[in-house]
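# step 3/5: fold
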Amino acid sequence: MEIFLNYLKVFAIGGFVCMLGQILINKTKMSSARILVLYMLVGVVLEVSGAFQYIKEFAHSGISIPIIGFGSNLAKGALEGMKEEGLLGAISGGLSAVAAGLTTAITCGFVFGLISKSHSKKI
């Protein structure tokens, strides 16, 4: 029963994040790219303020898998790099923390770009 409740929490929090994004798309003139950046910045702010860890303990991958988790990882790496190496470490630490995800996204995009056939949308 406990695993079912965990799945329910992950689905509910992840769905809530997606629902907020859809509301922003429907009710504002914000583009998807601006909403993406907003979500990433929310992750950064939650990480810097220390609130992300508490939310993650409750929601697990429901909050860490979306772009909010990416922002959190970027901030966490930057903070750790800053402690170890100073200003240059803040830049390299953030990139090091998200390197695996970025590499996977770029590689998958490249592979799918090679095997997919491009065509224009018909309006």
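# step 4/5: annotate
The chain has one domain: 2-115.
# step 5/5: archive (pending)
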